[in-house]
From TrEMBL:
Residues 191-213 are annotated as: Disordered. InterPro entries: NADH-UbQ_OxRdtase-assoc_prot30, NDUFAF1. This is NADH:ubiquinone oxidoreductase intermediate-associated protein 30 domain-containing protein. PANTHER family: COMPLEX I INTERMEDIATE-ASSOCIATED PROTEIN 30, NAD(P)-BINDING ROSSMANN-FOLD SUPERFAMILY PROTEIN. Residues 1-18 form the signal peptide. The keyword Transmembrane helix does not apply. Residues 191-203 have a biased composition (Basic and acidic residues). It comes from Emiliania huxleyi (strain CCMP1516). GO terms for biological process: NADH dehydrogenase complex assembly. Residues 25-182 form the NADH:ubiquinone oxidoreductase intermediate-associated protein domain. Keywords: Signal. Pfam families: CIA30. One of its GO terms (molecular function) is unfolded protein binding.
Length: 509
């Protein structure tokens, strides 16, 4: 088994449709143009063997009755299934040379056996955010079921990557001649595009939940990341990385374990991709997030390993710059360090006579925000550094950015973080219970959506500003009927120094 970090390169791309003789990728292509709707546009598709391309060329014309440009499409014929590309995150399109029309005038179209029909398809518009020169990569999540180009309701395409039966391209809305030389359409897990393009593009601000979803590609495709405290209306907005960010993937060395064995060791270091090292040689790299999966790698792609086969209680990844060495203390333990006197648990077992299905067991502890910080530490050398000294220098205030409540399966029912001075409930985490045998939904395991604060545009509440002397209370409720040996209830938080009034500082932990 391997730990897979998305910081995306190693899932090898799967060619779906190509013109170079790759096994299973040759298809017959057909065109459908607007004369079916009374227009006059025309296009044709031909395979140019010596150049290993499919050439789709034609002209979009104004449909007289509408006074607007019509459409041309080119699609694979037949409904034979393409390879199962479950686990991939993007559909890639590789072209040769320009087209005569802007990328944004083309769409990618996908048919799914048993889901789409002659009239319906999944469609995603191309554009600068997905395309760089001759290379486009469109997240499966950007495809919307559509009926003659208009969105309709339907299941996410990412749930049907085993049953793709049709691939195609369309252009509509701009009149003019075009000619597109297509090398291949392929499934990939690599959202990164050739260097240089990403930063040249304008960043589109996501206007709402729909856009947040569009702007949120992530590695663990099909998984909905939610936060526990989103603004009303945004509770189910998926969370991910900005589309303008770039990704790379790292695989850990294989992790071998015995049945019921505990693996508690540091794996050998893994070098970052050479191009990443070179690009950031001598400069800072802003890592804005990372995702992890534990996978097996049978031929054809990664398969997530369910928790009941390899339960991964903790992993810790250190991303080290050229001048750093892994600190010795990081080699054996994960850090649960609590300042002396931090926890004063108040246990509240269920009163005698409580019916079993109502019986709970509550642990409460009181502490101050200052207890969550070290008196002083070196934020450059110590990744866990959150310094009370620096916070004092910024007016003794901290803004909360994230609070993750941590508790254990199966007994945990809820975790609350309260501000005792104001009575405010800062965060409440209700575990999501797994219901099946599927990886990421394992019965008997819990997922703990965190609280995150940010901007209204992101569907998030503004960060609470707390003084170092804020009095906080953590309340953890467990099911008293479920077997538990001990009780786990901690809050792991991230914040920023200062009250945010013109203040941008290093993070506090
Ligand atoms: C595609 O592969 C996934 C995972 O490997 C599997 O769960 C799914 O059943 C497959 N789908 C089809 C239609 O074969
Ligand atoms: C980083 O840049 C320096 C100076 O140009 C060069 O000597 C060194 O080999 C580079 N290191 C890597 C890992 O590319
Ligand atoms: C505790 O778990 C049991 C199953 O083990 C369930 O029947 C009961 O309803 C749960 N109690 C609460 C308070 O959720
Ligand atoms: C927290 O409690 C202490 C002791 O009761 C008190 O002195 C302090 O003012 C409280 N903090 C706030 C922000 O009210």
């Amino acid at each position: 088994m391997l730990l897979l970090f998305s910081m995306l390169l190693a899932w090898s791309d799967v060619p779906l449709a190509a013109f170079d003789g790759t096994a299973g990728t040759a298809r017959q292509w057909i065109t459908v143009n607007d004369p079916v709707m009374g227009g006059g546009s025309d296009s044709s598709f031909s395979v140019v063997r010596e150049e290993r391309i499919g050439r789709w060329a034609g002209e979009v014309k104004i449909v007289r009755s509408l006074g607007a440009p019509g459409f041309c499409t080119a699609r694979t014929a037949g409904d034979a299934l393409f390879r199962n590309v479950t686990g991939s995150t993007h559909l890639g399109l590789s072209l040769k040379g320009g087209s005569g029309l802007p990328a944004a005038d083309f769409s990618l179209q996908v048919g799914v056996k048993g889901v789409t029909t002659m009239q319906t398809l999944y469609q995603a518009q191309l554009g600068g955010e997905y395309c760089c020169a001759d290379d486009c990569r469109v997240p499966w999540s950007a495809f919307r079921p559509s009926f003659r180009g208009r969105p309709i309701k339907g299941p996410p395409l990412a749930d049907h990557l085993g049953a793709l039966s049709q691939l195609g391209l369309g252009t509509a809305g701009t009149a003019g001649r075009f000619s597109l030389d297509i090398s291949s359409l392929y499934a990939t897990r690599d959202a990164s595009r050739p260097r240089g393009c990403a930063r040249d593009e304008p960043v589109r601000a996501p206007p709402g939940a729909e856009a947040a979803e569009e702007a949120s590609p992530h590695m663990n495709a099909g998984l909905a990341y939610h936060v526990a405290n989103a603004l009303p209306g945004h509770e189910l907005s998926p969370r991910g990385f900005a589309r303008t960010s770039e990704h790379f993937t790292l695989y850990s060395p294989p992790i071998r374990s015995r049945y019921a064995g505990v693996v508690w060791r540091v794996l050998p270091p893994v070098p970052l991709p050479v191009e990443v090292v070179q690009r950031y040689n001598g400069s800072a790299m802003a890592v804005t997030g990372f995702e992890v999966d534990v996978v097996r790698r049978p031929a054809g792609g990664d398969v997530s390993v369910p928790n009941y086969q390899s339960y991964n209680h903790h992993y810790t990844a250190h991303l080290l710059g050229a001048g750093m060495r892994l600190p010795a203390s990081a080699a054996r333990q994960s850090f649960h360090g609590l300042p002396a006197g931090y926890v004063q648990p108040v246990l509240s077992p269920a009163p005698a006579g409580t019916p079993a299905d109502k019986a709970t067991h509550t642990v409460t502890s009181h502490f101050q925000l200052r207890d969550m910080l070290a008196e002083d530490c070196d934020s450059l050398g110590d990744e866990y550094c959150a310094s009370a000294r620096v916070a004092e220098a910024r007016g003794g205030k901290v803004r909360l950015i994230m609070a993750g409540g941590h508790c254990h399966s199966p007994a945990c029912l809820s975790l609350q973080l309260r501000d005792r001075d104001t009575g405010e409930l800062l965060c409440e985490v209700t575990p999501r219970r797994g219901k099946s045998d599927a990886a990421w939904d394992e019965a008997g395991y819990l997922w703990l959506p965190p609280c995150q604060w940010g901007s209204a545009e992101e569907g998030l509440r503004p960060p609470p500003v707390l003084g170092l002397d804020a009095n906080l209370t953590a309340i953890k409720v467990a099911n008293a009927t479920e077997y538990h040996f001990g009780v786990m209830g901690i809050w792991q938080m991230r914040g920023a120094y200062g009250d945010g009034d013109g203040d941008v500082g290093p993070r506090a932990a």
